[in-house]
Amino acid sequence: MTFTSHARVDTDRPARYLKQLCSHFDRKANSTFDEEKGRTDFEFGVCEFLVEQGALVLDLTAGDLDQLDKLEFVVGDHLERFGKKDGLAVNWKRD
Hints:
This protein is α+β, with helices and mostly antiparallel strands and about 100 residues long. It is about 30% helix and about 40% strand. It holds the Pfam family DUF2218.
């Protein structure tokens, strides 16, 4: 069984944050990305990134709820810290 969570974060610079997150996470996890989408494979789950007009979409998948909690925290915390000047906020919605 897998558990999923999603967020759509409004920003005028979604491609910038995609690149920044994937580059940062690639130091400890496997990240791949281009200007429109990205993916980071953590030990505790997967985050897929998608650039949309005016937003960065985050899709998380994990094997259990504890891993999903950790994934939401790690990805959300990093994006909010990177986007502090832009006032970015991540609100997760679980399936």
